[in-house]
Design a protein that fits this description.
This protein is of the alpha+beta class. It has one helix and eight strands; from the N terminus they run H-E-E-E-E-E-E-E-E. The strands form four sheets. Strands 1-2 form a two-stranded antiparallel ribbon. A two-stranded antiparallel sheet has the order 3-4. It is rod-shaped. The protein starts with a helix and ends in a 21-residue tail after the last strand.
């Protein structure tokens, strides 16, 4: 039985080896077929990317995934072009006092020279 099993495995290996790489699905067969930065994983019997990388089918290579954007607070959303959290168009004004985005502009507070507010005279 062992001899029969050995002959069957050998025959299967010869068939796989004799099949042109173009006829096999990418990443199957042997380490020689691995492309795009992948390496052969004998346990999974396929080509895999290194730990921390993922296969990008469109680019046909292993790539590190983009880092997740930071969590924004106060109703702000991440803007990748600006590289920071910003208020969305429907609430585009930032209210620093409440720590939230608002749809109405926040009037600036007038502080006289010297940095202290003067008491208002009674009316």
């Amino acid at each position: 039985m062992l001899r029969t099993l050995l002959v069957a495995v050998t025959a299967l290996a010869l068939v796989v080896a004799a099949t042109p790489a173009a006829a096999r699905p990418p990443g199957t067969g042997s380490g020689r077929d691995c492309t795009g930065g992948r390496h052969w994983d004998a346990v999974q019997a396929r080509c895999v990317c290194r730990s921390g990388s993922v296969w990008n089918e469109a680019r046909q290579q292993c790539m590190r995934p983009a880092p997740a954007p930071p969590a924004c607070t106060g109703g702000r959303v991440w803007n990748a072009a600006a590289g920071r959290c910003i208020c969305p168009p429907d609430r585009r004004y930032w209210d620093g006092k409440s720590g939230r985005c608002t749809s109405t502009p926040i009037p600036p507070q007038q502080i006289p020279p010297g940095g202290r507010r003067q008491p208002q005279p009674p009316r």
